[in-house]
Amino acid sequence: MSGTDNHLQTAIEYISKYIGNVQEEELELLLPLVRFANYQKGDLIYKYGEIPKSASFIITGAVRSYYFDEDGKENTVGFHFENEPAFPYGSFVELVPAATSFVAMEPVAVVWISRHDFYHFLETFPRFEIGIAKVLSEYLIKGGQHLKLMRIDSSRERYKKLLELQPEIVTRVPLTYIASYLGMALETLSRVRAGKL
Amino acid sequence: MSGTDNHLQTAIEYISKYIGNVQEEELELLLPLVRFANYQKGDLIYKYGEIPKSASFIITGAVRSYYFDEDGKENTVGFHFENEPAFPYGSFVELVPAATSFVAMEPVAVVWISRHDFYHFLETFPRFEIGIAKVLSEYLIKGGQHLKLMRIDSSRERYKKLLELQPEIVTRVPLTYIASYLGMALETLSRVRAGKL
DNA sequence: TGCATAATTTGACTTGCGTCAAACTCCTTT
DNA sequence: AAAGGAGTTTGACGCAAGTCAAATTATGCA
Lengths: 197, 197
Hints:
The structure is a homodimer of 197-residue chains. Helices cover 48% and strands 20% of the residues of chain A. Chain A is an alpha+beta fold and 197 residues long. In chain A, a hairpin with a 5-residue loop joins strand 4 and strand 5. Chains A and B meet through helix 3 and helix 5 of A and helix 3 and helix 5 of B.
């Protein structure tokens, strides 16, 4: 089976994941609009300040999203892995410049659809709005989890909770970014892991 | 003009806010599904652990949402005022028990629609999915703002940012809840306000 | 294989903020 | 007007975690 066949399969899975049962005629119109892209480690997939022109979904690889606060400090907002969307959702929907950037932490392959194509498609099949709602609510839940995580005061407990909720992060992501995600100093996280705190 | 007329007007404004241009026939079918309710200060509007059976939108008053963490500590998630939705969105969409409760901080009047009625209505007019996406993306942006707020390390700066983003909170909400929302001790917030920190 | 650079760990020092406790102010109710 | 209670302020003290700095361990690349 070729890589493209595989990818097409992934695209179809994404569609049914977010829309449920899809009609033949819907699929016929939607599939030609779908594209594929590859990124190297360190590549920017979306840049803050720009209005996202597409919605990307990860096939393989790991992506990190982050923003810069007023002091210029980089704040990691989230990690995105296989079978998850990775794009500035709010900005995509509201058509405003994104506050967050998305960068590949490893070689990354994505499926993507342009904003223009997608909204044009929506005019024919408005029920696909449900897909947007699904993506948004997934992000909402993830964001809510992160917020809850951040509200735990002790660094030790915060890290413990992360292990519980997203253990894969700890194996795939460099310490610096985990610390940034958890809102603690790199050194503190190191001490927590060594059981010294 | 009677109170009910006023309320009906508010309901219509809500609908066009979230859906855009609404057709006559759409409105005719939707309006009869809409109800009104009043709450006293302290009344629970939604309770955590329950699957929300309705979506409420505030006409007048102020609502606070919060959850209890594993240590039993109450954490304030958000404040909701006039012309804003106030219900456990994620749970409403995903049909799972809510983690947060919603309580009236003042006398509150709301428009609401039952989950059942709304989803039944959606079968006839699927394009109204866009309303869900709108509500979700509003919540998403609000949640994102809160998360950003919480990531500011200094209490002083955190409070300053709140004043900048949502000044009305400071005038309408008791100190205890603001402190809880900002993730700091009541005493710390008091000192910050007195300029002692 | 070995060097260079990055990533992580450890140490020493400082401080913001939480906790506990008590005082003070402002409503509400009788 | 007085009493009671909620909401807010002030004080004293201890500690978790931030910062700066240096050592140690990994990792990629020639």
